[in-house]
2,5-dioxovalerate dehydrogenase (Vreelandella subterranea), 1050 residues
Amino acid sequence: MTIRGEMLIGQQAVSGNQADIHAVNPATGETMEPTYVGGSKAEVERACELAETAFASYRETGLEARATFLETIASEIEGIGDELIERAMAETGLPRPRLEGERGRTCGQLRLFASVVRAGEWLDVRIDPALPDRSPMPRTDLRQRHIGLGPVAVFGASNFPLAFSVAGGDTASALAAGCPVVVKGHSAHPGTSELVGRAVQRAVAKCHLAEGVFSLLFGSGKEIGQALVKDPRIQAVGFTGSRSGGTALMATAQARPQPIPVYAEMSSINPVFLLPEALEARGEKIAEGFVGSLNMGAGQFCTNPGLVIAVKGKALDAFIDAAGDGVKASISQTMLSPGIHQAYEQGVNTLSSHAKVREVARGQLGEGANQCCAGLFVASAADFLTDETLQAEVFGASSLVVECADQAEMMRVAAELEGQLTITLQMDDGDVDAAKALLPTLERKAGRILANGWPTGVEVCHAMVHGGPYPATSDSRTTSVGSAAIHRFLRPVCYQALPEALLPDALQDANPEGISRLVDGKREA
Amino acid sequence: MTIRGEMLIGQQAVSGNQADIHAVNPATGETMEPTYVGGSKAEVERACELAETAFASYRETGLEARATFLETIASEIEGIGDELIERAMAETGLPRPRLEGERGRTCGQLRLFASVVRAGEWLDVRIDPALPDRSPMPRTDLRQRHIGLGPVAVFGASNFPLAFSVAGGDTASALAAGCPVVVKGHSAHPGTSELVGRAVQRAVAKCHLAEGVFSLLFGSGKEIGQALVKDPRIQAVGFTGSRSGGTALMATAQARPQPIPVYAEMSSINPVFLLPEALEARGEKIAEGFVGSLNMGAGQFCTNPGLVIAVKGKALDAFIDAAGDGVKASISQTMLSPGIHQAYEQGVNTLSSHAKVREVARGQLGEGANQCCAGLFVASAADFLTDETLQAEVFGASSLVVECADQAEMMRVAAELEGQLTITLQMDDGDVDAAKALLPTLERKAGRILANGWPTGVEVCHAMVHGGPYPATSDSRTTSVGSAAIHRFLRPVCYQALPEALLPDALQDANPEGISRLVDGKREA
């Protein structure tokens, strides 16, 4: 048993002196042991000081050593075994297969970043050799590489206790970039966090890295979170959560004497456009896929399809009927926490009591506490366009169908959407022209556009963009999932006419690490 | 004669209805014709509306068409001929060779971005092909490219009337990224701005682009600048200027309902470290190079060497004597504007009247108004470390030598530096260990580190970083000079399982534009 109710500061395990934190089993309402005692500014201070010290050596680890460290974290997490899955099940109410899958994804993600580190493209090596004979002025030797920004603060998310938490995508990509990480664990799954944190801590020791490469703190947002973001040694922030939480961190980061980037992935209702031919030809099948995506994980995904947009008519009526039947037949699932359940109920009640909204269906209430009963609602595009509360995210298995008078109104709805993580097109061959007309608008609204699939299920790969315009995220230029996430924690440095003895390995003529380079503007493999 | 005192909104030329703006010849104090009448929110509105409309087509121009447009701008600027140089000389007080060189740099920069656009690496094409047989879950086809952020607001800088102004680096890189540009011209050189603006306007027409791709406005910061940054269609801001100006734009951009990135290049004192062996061996020669760099363009460069750091002793005394002689012998030069001259005088007076600062030398006062007399000052490291006013930028040919007790104190000074654009090492072979000890600190403080050269003179190339940690710039992850500047105006979009008919050219299987791609994590040329 390795759960002791402690924070991890470098290689130490400590207890705080602030308010107690207990995990609650959302399925039973039962309070779980052990007690976590929230940290204070003193723990933030120690973790950041260690991180700053560790940055000096960690940022210059060789590619192989850094990749091995990421792989060691993955092995250590796998080595925890079933204790991790059982604790996560108890703390989150999520079922075993989902958590086993999430563990696989988390470890796969760490290994993907190991391969990215080894390939070295993230260094973006550029060499413009000296041109001593150029006229009117000679050119001196100029070389560029990227280095880590510095220590990074990562906020664990509630809805992915493994993949977006202690050793999730933010942590993996920051470590890959050479940045030490101080995690604020989510209070809803402290035991899961501690188990994973200890795995990272062991990997740090096994790889003989400076201990400050990783720390894990617990506590309230005010005590720990704000102090972390304000700490002068922290150079970037990774966050997945609510819009209010994300914008608060953005404001704190901007108000620092030295502002720093915040990568906050906040809210998205992931519109799905049902184009006419597809709707006509296979509305019921689409409804089936839709209800499956809506209910996945009790709808507690950033990519949950919370909005469906189509032109009204018989085909849409048939879709709504079929989707309504699917929702009615679906059994409620346990939500992640009492707070999330309460917010979901509130969001659904706002919709069902809204004068301009028609409730189509609610799911079956099953047993246990904090149950998410799916909900399907309908509103007209005209009302949607004039009432921005209908664009608010309801975190959970609720979705709103927006009925448009015609294609033109569908275009207007598209144009009025807020920034999104994803937008989906359900389309057949005959819908290509309609899709082409929509696409330029959709590209400006979302980080990912998909056809004939569902937005839930975010592949961890090189081409993924889990990002999008504000308010989906705080920074549309980035992704928080996939290998490109590493770029969030890097900055370029140019070295002009430095003696070979001073040049970093990656920039030396001999190219000892065999990295792809841009030499005088030409790519050399 | 093409100077008419007008703003350019798309293909129109208009006059505003706010306060009059006149260029002043800084060498004579003479007010120049014509009168420019500042624009108001109405002109911002029209320029932004046109830019938004133009974005739809401009962002999807083919690589060749976009590159040709950038080259056409360069030809049109060259086509203005001597009128441009003479007007710029009169408006800025800068000498002919400098402005001819700057014109060459500006046009070379546009052509560099043309080559960057053609090469297509900026699209960062990534393809992760479908893996239908993968278990436990198949992978669907995922493709990524980058697209322009949207219309960009560019603020012309006073100190480079061509290279950092209407068609300077910010405009060139934004246009290269597929973003329309609305420029707020600098009030100190409106005639130069109008001439260049009309050249861009002609290039837009010749290339048959949507007229809103480019507009040029004049007016006070409050009327035009703030309105531009607040306009919901503007998606990014490029700025070179003072720290107060840059931070004001940052605050406005963050306070928008949708915050946007601001790329502000603000202030830097560009420390020069004189390492012991080099100082001992060639202190006088270094002094000569230093005074040359200090006086270049009357010190009105973001990269002017405003701070010299060395260990005290005979060698440093000899350097200070030699540099002092050089400064004493230097003849004053006309500064860009009365305002800049006034600020310089104030900065130099603060130093010369500072109790802890010793004035070593002032240059000769030559003829004409707004003259910059170079200044050289000395302070102890102990005083420098305890008085942050000594780190303030004095924009002009003034520099402060910081005398350190020993190598350790030199390290402390390095650690206390604010973010910088550049840091220079003067070093010989015997200084390598000292340089190695400093380097990790310097990398965290500056965007460019150079050895045995001078920071003035910023090469426009692929490896250049003209950027650095706050307050040198607002965003250390970027550069405003060199081909990597294009990345500031781009964001990634992922396309999942889109039918070939909907895929942008760059992502189609056939790769019709022959762009380098990352396929399943492997680089294909």
